[in-house]
Amino acid sequence: MSIAKISARKCASNVIVSTTPDVCWTPVGSDVVKVGYSSIAFLDTAIRHSTTVRNNGKFDFQLNSRCSKSTGHEPGTKRGVVVPGYLGPAHVEVASYFVFSEGWATCSHRDPAWINRPDPGPVEPQKSQVQAPIILAANDGTPGNNRAQNAQVDAVCRILKLTKDQRQMLHREIGGQNYGFQEIMECAKDMFGK
């Protein structure tokens, strides 16, 4: 399976799968026991998906999207042990910080997700264009490019809720390296365990 960040679409070949057992209360004879299942949700059952933005002809699967049901744990009729879901919806928990579709963050391959929820969950916050600036910085150290990189550092610090001291540490770390937004974000996550 590829580790590339391939965007998710409303399509049967796109899935959310459990990486650890989905433990459900399961009737066995007259007892009810905990049994771990491998669960899966197919993105072609998506609700609250993009209605105008397509990716290779398929609608975008966004942070606000939900798969209408999970499957693979059907015998666990007494619901999940940790979260009381049964054939429940699935959705991505953390999506892109910088790619949006209709105002919602887009989802990609291997984004963390929640499978077999007891309900569809809340409507996720929507970003406006003002909240998601696009700034391009070139490879030279001109004042304009320095300002662009400073703005990108500021945006990363806001997203990750970094302190002023952490911002200074990040700025020193990336200084002179001509990093773009995604590289700055990854550097900050590595530095501060976010």
Automatic annotation (TrEMBL):
This is DUF4150 domain-containing protein. It comes from Agrobacterium larrymoorei. It comes from the Bacteria. Keywords: Plasmid. The lineage of its organism: Bacteria, Pseudomonadati, Pseudomonadota, Alphaproteobacteria, Hyphomicrobiales.
